[in-house]
UniProtKB/TrEMBL annotation:
This is aldehyde dehydrogenase (NAD(+)). The lineage of its organism: Bacteria, Pseudomonadati, Pseudomonadota, Alphaproteobacteria, Rhodospirillales. PROSITE patterns: ALDEHYDE_DEHYDR_CYS. It comes from Nisaea acidiphila. CDD domains: ALDH_CddD_SSP0762. Signal peptide: none annotated.
Length: 484
C-alpha cells in the first residue's frame, strides 16, 4: 500500500501542517489502496501564498515558453500513461481497458487540444474593423482554485489545470479525496515538466474543510468546480463575499430520444451500453431513454437483452466488463434509488437490488433497466450515478421535447432519428449545453458544459481558455494614421 501524505506546494512535496491520515479504498476489493492526508485551512493558505507569489512572473512569461511547458507535460503524460491508468483503476475501480483507453487517454486528448487552442487563440486585438483604437486584451485572471470529482479524474483535472496555467494563471488543485492518486501522479508530471515553483500546487482534503477554505479565500480570484450540484451551490455561496468568478460543471439527467424512424435495435443497444459505461458514473450519461410509442416494445426487448449480457467484474482483468461503483456510500445510494424505482411502480426489466451473482466483495451493482418509467418518478428525476437506465415512452415529437426538458438539469441530450430535419429541429429545442445526434462523438476542443443546474462553465479548447481569462478594454489605443 502506498503512503502519500505530502502535498505539492511551491515546487516541493511538503508534509501537511497537521497530520490527518485518510484511506483511499479500492472499490473492487474494499481494501486500503493508499493513504493520503486531509489538509486544513493552513495548508490552503500556504499553497495560495505560493500561487500568488508565482503569478506576477508566470503571467508575464512569454506565451511560447508557457506553451513549451505544456508540450513537455504532454510528452511526459504520454510516456507515463500506463502508470496513470493504473492509478485511476486502483482509486475508482475503472476496468483496465477503460482506465487506459478512456480515462487516462481523455487527459492526454485534452492536453493536446489545449496546445492547439493556445497556439491559435488571439489574446489581443482591436474591438472591430471600425473601432481600431478600442483595443481588447485577454489577461490571465490570477490565482485559480480547482476542485474536481472522482468519476473521470484526469479528464477533469486536465480540463482545468492545463488551460489555467497555459494562459498564465497559477493554481491550487484539490482533487476528490476519494480518488486523489491520479492527481498526485499528475503533480509529479507537472514537476517533471519544469513548471516554475508555485505555478501548480496540490492540497488534498475534503469539501467542507479545504474546498470551503479555497472558495472563501480572498487571494483566490476564481473557482473552477466540477462535482455535484449540491457542492457547486456551496462553493458559490462561500465565494460570494469575495465576488470571485465561479465556474461550475455539475450533474445531469440526460434524455436520449429514440424515434421509430431510426434503426431502433442499434440505437437502443448503443444507448444502454453508453449508460453502463464507467459503471454509469458519468455526468453526461444518457440515463432517461425515451422511445416513440410504436418502437417501444422492440426497445424494451433489446434493452433487456443488452443489460442481461453486460458483464460485471474484476477491473484488473482484460475484457468488456464494467467495474464496481466508487464507494460504499455510492453503492448504498444506488441501492436506495433502485428500491425507489421498484416501490414507485416502474417495471424492473433487468438487474435490481443486491450484488451480481458471485461478487460478494467490492461495490458491484447489477446492470439495471427499468421500463414504464414516468418523469415524476424518483429514478427519472435524480442523478443515480450507477448503471441504472430508465425507459419511458412518448407519442409525439412535441411531447418528447417537453419530457426531455422537464428536468432541472441540462447537460447532454441525445437524439436518434433517421430524419435530418427533425434532428436539426430537436438540436435547437432541447435545453442542454451539448447535443449528440445519432451516436456522433464529440470533436476535441468542443465546449463541454451545461444549461440550468448542470452548471455555467464551458470547458475544453478555446472555450476552456476563455474561462480563465479576464477581458480588458483599452480606449485610445495608439494606432498608426491610415494616411501615413
Ligand atoms: N458537468 C461536468 O462536467 C461533470 C463532470 C464529472 C462529474 N460531474 C458531477 O460530479 C458529481 C460526482 O462527483 P462527486 O461525488 O465527487 O461530487 P461531490 O460534489 O461530492 O464532490 C466533488 C468535489 O467537490 C468537493 N466538495 C464537496 N463538498 C464541497 C464543499 N462544500 N465545498 C467545496 N468543495 C466541496 C469534493 O471534496 C470533491 O473534490 C456528479 O453529480 C456528476 O454529475 C459533473
Amino acid at each position: 500500500m502506498e503512503r502519500k501524505t505530502d502535498f505539492y506546494i511551491d515546487g516541493k512535496w511538503v508534509a501537511p501542517i497537521k497530520a490527518n491520515d485518510f484511506p483511499v479504498i479500492n472499490p473492487a476489493n474494499e481494501t486500503e489502496y493508499a493513504t493520503i492526508s486531509l489538509g486544513t485551512e493552513d495548508d490552503v493558505n500556504a499553497a495560495v501564498a505560493a500561487a500568488k507569489a508565482a503569478f506576477s512572473s508566470w503571467s508575464t512569461t512569454p506565451h511560447a515558453e508557457r506553451v513549451a511547458k505544456v508540450e513537455k507535460l504532454a510528452e511526459i503524460y504520454q510516456e507515463r500513461m500506463e502508470e496513470m491508468a493504473e492509478a485511476i483503476s486502483g482509486e475508482m475501480g475503472a476496468p483496465k481497458n477503460i482506465a487506459s483507453s478512456q480515462q487516462a487517454a481523455a487527459g492526454l486528448g485534452h492536453i493536446k487540444a489545449f496546445i492547439r487552442a493556445l497556439k491559435e487563440f488571439e489574446f489581443e486585438g482591436p474591438l472591430s474593423e471600425k473601432f481600431q483604437s478600442e483595443y481588447i486584451i485577454h489577461e490571465p485572471i490570477g490565482v485559480c482554485g480547482l476542485i474536481t470529482p472522482w468519476n473521470w479524474p484526469m479528464n477533469q483535472v486536465t480540463l482545468k489545470v492545463v488551460p489555467a496555467v497555459g494562459v498564465g494563471c497559477t493554481v491550487l488543485l484539490k482533487p476528490s479525496e476519494i480518488a486523489p492518486m491520479s492527481s498526485m501522479l499528475f503533480a509529479e508530471f507537472m514537476d517533471q515538466a519544469g513548471f516554475p515553483a508555485g505555478v501548480f500546487n496540490l492540497v488534498n482534503g475534503d469539501g467542507p474543510t479545504v474546498g470551503e477554505a479555497m472558495s472563501r479565500h480572498p487571494d483566490i480570484d476564481m473557482m473552477s468546480f466540477t462535482g455535484s450540484t449540491r457542492a457547486g451551490v456551496a462553493v458559490t455561496k462561500a465565494a460570494a463575499d469575495t465576488v470571485k468568478r465561479v465556474s461550475l460543471e455539475l450533474g445531469g439527467k440526460g434524455p436520449n430520444l429514440v424515434f421509430a424512424d431510426t434503426d431502433v435495435a442499434k440505437a437502443v443497444k448503443r444507448g444502454v451500453l453508453h449508460m453502463f459505461n464507467n459503471s454509469g458514473q458519468s455526468c453526461n450519461a444518457p440515463s432517461r431513454m425515451m422511445v416513440e410509442k410504436s418502437a417501444y416494445a422492440e426497445a424494451v426487448e433489446v434493452a433487456k437483452s443488452v443489460a442481461e449480457a453486460q458483464e460485471v467484474g474484476d477491473p484488473t482483468q482484460e475484457g468488456r466488463q464494467i467495474g464496481p461503483v466508487v464507494s460504499e456510500t455510492q453503492f448504498n445510494k444506488i441501492q436506495g434509488l433502485i428500491d425507489a424505482g421498484i416501490k414507485e411502480g416502474a417495471t424492473l426489466l433487468a438487474g435490481g437490488l443486491g450484488r451480481p451473482d458471485g461478487l460478494n466483495r467490492g461495490y458491484y451493482v447489477k446492470p439495471t433497466v427499468f421500463a414504464d418509467v414516468t418523469n415524476d418518478m424518483t429514478i427519472a428525476k435524480e442523478e443515480i450515478f450507477g448503471p441504472v437506465l430508465s425507459i419511458m415512452s412518448f407519442e409525439s415529437e412535441e411531447e418528447a421535447v417537453k419530457i426531455a426538458n422537464d428536468t432541472p438539469y441540462g447537460l447532454t441530450s441525445y437524439v436518434q432519428t433517421g430524419d435530418p430535419e427533425r434532428a436539426k429541429r430537436l438540436a435547437r429545442q432541447l435545453r442542454a449545453g451539448m447535443i449528440q445526434l445519432n451516436g456522433a462523438g464529440r470533436a476535441p476542443g468542443s465546449p463541454f458544459g451545461g444549461y440550468k443546474q448542470s452548471g455555467n462553465g464551458r470547458e475544453g479548447g478555446k472555450f476552456g481558455l476563455l474561462e480563465f481569462l479576464e477581458v480588458k478594454a483599452v480606449a485610445g489605443w495608439p494606432v498608426a494614421d491610415a494616411a501615413e
